[in-house]
Specification:
Helices cover about 70% and strands about 0% of the residues. The termini are far apart.
Length: about 140
């Protein structure tokens, strides 16, 4: 029997494969946990700590949520320009998230950028047809004959 077909090398290869899979899965879980801690810090009023926790999150699965969290933190601090920038980045990372687009539209409206706000709201409405317009937004009127 060949040395490569003996049970020991097969077990070693299987163990190495399992370790590789575990290492592959640990990264996303660690970032999910960090994002959860940042969310808790923001809810507890520790805004600066929440923003600090989100700085190193770069996995695609958590990136747009970290950007949304930074936007909420900027809103709590009264920095509308930073909040808009972070929401714009989040929308570009997750273009099919209607709630991000709606939040971005509301923020653009607060910044008095009405045309951009209307366009963003229309995109959110295209993603979720049952969306109710927030205060200050009016759906396009259709002619009734």
């Amino acid at each position: 029997m060949s040395q490569w077909l003996s049970p020991l090398p097969i077990r070693v290869l299987a163990a190495a494969a399992c370790l590789g899979a575990a290492a592959f899965l640990v990264g996303p879980l660690r970032q999910e946990r960090t994002l959860h801690r940042a969310d808790e810090a923001l809810a507890a009023g520790r805004t600066a700590h929440a923003v600090e926790l989100t700085q190193g999150l770069d996995r695609r699965s958590v990136q747009y949520r970290a950007q949304r969290l930074r936007a909420i933190a900027a809103l709590q601090l009264g920095d509308l320009v930073t909040a808009e920038r972070e929401l714009r980045r989040a929308v570009s990372s997750a273009p099919n998230d209607w709630s991000l687009r709606l939040g971005h539209a509301v923020l653009l409206r607060r910044l008095n950028r009405r045309a951009a706000a209307r366009n963003e709201f229309e995109r959110a409405l295209a993603l979720n047809a049952r969306l109710t317009p927030p205060v200050g937004f009016v759906r396009k009127r259709t002619a009734v004959r």
